Structures are given as structure tokens and as C-alpha cells.
Amino acid sequence: MNNSPKKKAIVYPYNSEFTPILRYSSKLHQYNVYKLIAPKSWGCVGKDASAADEGIPLHMIVESCIDDIFDADVIIIADFPHDDIILTKVKEVITTGIQREKEIICLKTLADDDVAYFKKYPNFRYYNNEAVWSRRRDKTLNTVNVPIICICGLIDNVNKFDVQIALNEYLKMKGYKITNITSKSYGKFLDFYPLPLSLYKNEDCITDKVNFLNNYIKSIEVKENPDAIILELPGGIMPYDDKITNNYGEIHNIVFNAVQCDFVCLNLSYSIVTKEFLEELRLIMKYRFNTSLDCFYFSNKNISKISLDFFGKYDWQIMPKSFFTSRFNELFENEKDNHIYNFVLEQNIKKLGDLVIDSL
Fold it and tell me: N or C end of the chain, less CB within 10 A?
């Protein structure tokens, strides 16, 4: 038994991309994450870390003093939305951290030349989404013999990764051996397998991509011998509107042709929806992808129409927890048997986990 003290770790720049890891992942148990640092302009400083996503409280206050970063043994560079100013600062932090012999764990995708430079140093650890692309032209599909739990969305940025991490931890707590495949570029940090970037490229036809993904998932099954596989998919199942096309659901088309998913959770952004709309989504999943839909999971995020009208671009707004909870209850108080869950209630992960166990 290893009784050595845990390495002290600081997360920078803290934001909602890191929140699900902080909230759910047992991977962080090997570190003493004692401080979260974020730019003041991001709106989290001085607040509980849950302010980043208005989710379940985390009981850690976000700070802003960047000089404190180098007091830690480990500096975890969180992924974050593109920001040139912050990216420049992050690279300065990495450089100084390397010089001071700190362990650097980088979850942010960097330019190739930056990665090549930093990787020369043994205390720099970089996580990115790489999987070997097989050029096999085998036209047959392998049968995957373990249940596959698929988490997909009507659109991107609706807490799919949160659900994956939380469900993974809950099922492991129940004694199940779970293997994960994720679209997140830093999935390997959590010992998750990457969804291959090759699926996004245009060099190969869909037939080859389907066969490759099938062989890839089968190889993971053989290697890991899990009780179940959780598969989290990027983007959305179909175009959201004329501007957010979600690549017309191409990734989902590949996945649902490559493997049979035994449990499917569809994540939605917060909006006022009808029972008829949800039933329509069930039919879309059935007839477009030949799969059943087992539950809905509502995010507390929604696209800001103000940003679209005034700035001509899409932006996301996060609903305050109290408002989101009350509106959700009003919409779905009579739909408890239809397996409709929401992001901000902790008990919903248990309900979802138990539903998965009962279904499989």
C-alpha cells in the first residue's frame, strides 16, 4: 500500500471544461487538488467552483492569483475555449513550470510546434486524441459482445462528458468494470480511449470508417474485457439549424452502423419542449439510426439568441440552478416514467445508473 503523500496540484485556467473531472472523476484522487485559478474576466473568481456550470456544489473557491501556481508540485493545464491572450499566458506558465521542475499535465490542445518543443522536457505530459488509423479494407463487421452505452446529443456542449464521467464512476462503484471511449481530446488523462480523429477526416469513405471503428471497438473489448463500454459522441445527431449542421449527423451514422448500442441517452439543451417533440426524437433515432432511445438528459445550457441577433454568432448561456430546476419541474412533473433527467440534481446520476443496470 502506497502511503506517500499525494502531490499538490493546481488547476489553471479553471473553467467549465474541467468541472466534470473535478466533480466526478476518481482519477484526481491521486492528487491533492488544493487550488483552482481562473482569469477574473471569466466570472468564477471568489465563487464556488460549481459557478462554472451552475451544477452540483463543489465546495472549492476559485482564485485568481497566478503567482500561486508555482507553489504546487503539479500544474494541470485545463482545456478551455480558444482565447489568444489566455493561451499566451498558459504557454508562459508551462515554460516557467518546466524551468522550475514542476510536473505539467496539459489537457489543452496546442500547436504542433509548441508540443514538439515542450515534449523535449520529461516533466511535460501532453494528452491528445490519437488512435491508429487502420487501412484494412475488411468489409465484414465484428460482433461486440459486451453492452455499449451511448451518450449523444441533439447539439454539442450539452454535458455529455459530464454524464459519461458520472455514469462511469457510479457503475464502477456498483462493481462493474467499465471501459470508456470519448471524443474529448484529453480523454487519455482519465484512462479513456479516444474516439479516433480519423473519423472526422475526408480521405476515406464512410464504409471504411464504419469498418475501422468496428474493428477499433472490438479490439478494445478484447483487450479490456469490460462488463460494458460507455461511448460518448461529439456534435449532434442531425442539423440543429442552417448554421449548426453537426456535420449532418455523419459521426452518429458511422457509429450506429459500426456497433449495436444497447442503451442510448440523448442530451438536450435547455428549452421549452413538448412531449410530442420528445416522441419525434425517439422516432428519428429509430428510423435514422435503427436504435431505440432509452432516456433524455437535459443540460442547463442554451444558445443565446441575443448573441446571435446582435453579434451574428452563437454563444451559450447557463441557466441559474434555481430557475432551471423550477422550469424543468414545471415541464416534466408528469413525465417521471419517461426517464427524463436533468443535469443539476445529484440524484439523477443514481437514477440514470440504476436505469442502465436494469436495462442491461
Answer: N
Helix (H, G, I), strand (E, B) or coil at 267: strand
Q: Give, in order, the Cα–Cα distances in Å from 224 to each of 160, 181, 228, 255, 285.
A: 23, 12, 10, 20, 29
Q: Is 152 helix (H, G, I), strand (E, B) or coil?
A: strand
Q: At what angle do helices 160-173 and 347-359 cross, to 10 degrees?
A: 70
C-alpha cell at 271: 428549452
Closest by Cα among 213, 58, 65, 71 to 131: 213
Q: Would the CA dihedral through 301, 191, 247, 250 be positive or negative? A: negative
- What are the Cα distances from residue 288, in Å, to 212, 275, 291, 292? 21, 20, 8, 10
311 CB-contact burial (10 Å; exposed 0-12 / middle 13-18 / buried 19+): exposed
Q: Which grid coordinates are listed for 118?
A: 515542450
Give yes or no for residue 288 having a pLDDT over 90: yes
Work out whether strand 148-153 and strand 178-182 pair parallel, antiparallel, or are unpaired.
Answer: unpaired
Yes or no: say if 56 and 200 are a contact pair by the CB < 8 Å rule: no
Which among 305, 229, 240, 304 is positioned nearest to 267, based on CA atoms? 240
Q: Is the peptide bond before 13 cis (omega within 30 degrees of 0)?
A: yes
Q: Give the whole-angstrom CA distance, residue 329 versus residue 304.
A: 22
The pLDDT of residue 142 is 93
* Residue 309, C-alpha cell as written in the block: 441577433
**Inter-residue contact 296 to 340 (CB < 8 Å):** yes
Whether the Cβ atoms of residue 301 and residue 159 lie closer than 8 Å to each other: yes
pLDDT value at position 311? 65
Cβ neighbours of residue 340 closer than 8 Å, sequence gap 6 or more:
278, 295, 296, 298, 332
Pairing mode, strands 74-77 and 103-106:
parallel
How far is it, in rounded angstroms, from Cα 3 to Cα 16?
32
Write the pLDDT tens digit of every residue in 86-122: 999 999 999 999 999 999 999 999 999 999 999 999 9
Query: What pLDDT is recorded for position 3?
Result: 63
